[in-house]
Amino acid sequence: MNDEEVIWRKLLIDGDGIGDDRRLNILLKTYLKWCNTKYTDPLESQKAMEKMLVHLNLCEHAMKKSQAVSRMNVEEMLMYDNMSSEIDHNITNTKTEIDRAKEELKKAKTIRRNRMEYDVLAKLIIQHPPRTETAKRLDDLKDELQALKMTKNEINQKLDKRRKQLHVLMSALNDLTDSLDDNDSMSEDMSYETFDDEDLDILTRKDDVEEPMSD
């Protein structure tokens, strides 16, 4: 209900309004009537005065009630303001705690990640031998490699020596083979030179006769 509706409602109800306004208007009219009336009977004047006192008490009671309500409204407004301030303060504290919790969560995640990385590195370190053992193993491998190189050089020298000896032997064998071939050729020529054609013919016939006999 807006202000215009309230005013129209007050004007429509007997022209005196409603509630406290009505009481004040009635009290004012009664007082004016009492002032303008010349009472011949003091009793009627007393009754009119008592009636005005009743309305005055009602108006006073309504005023005290309105003051109490107003004071209560002010107190409630103060209470609501305090509650609002407290709520705002709690909201601010809650936001601060949330931010702090986020930072702590972030730190916790960082610590957890670092711990996981540390565990992985620790496992890798455990899997690998210490530096001293690695250095000793490396020295042993170097010594072993040097020994293998020396052995390889010795084997290569022996192979070169055997290769040279084999080459000399093959050369001598080839020379011997050539010499034997030459001697065989000379022997064959000399054997055939001691026989003439007649002797060769006799030998051939002899061979032919011996073959059937053997059969």
UniProtKB/TrEMBL annotation:
Main location: nucleus
This protein's GO CC annotations: THO complex part of transcription export complex
A Gene Ontology BP annotation from the UniProt entry: mRNA processing
Residue runs in coiled coils: 91-165
Classification via InterPro entries: THOC7/Mft1
Location(s), subcellular: Nucleus
Record keywords, A-Z: Coiled coil, Nucleus
Superkingdom assignment: Eukaryota
Family: Belongs to the THOC7 family.
PANTHER family per UniProt: MAINTENANCE OF KILLER 16 MAK16 PROTEIN-RELATED (PTHR23405), THO COMPLEX SUBUNIT 7 HOMOLOG (PTHR23405:SF5)
Protein name per its UniProtKB record: THO complex subunit 7
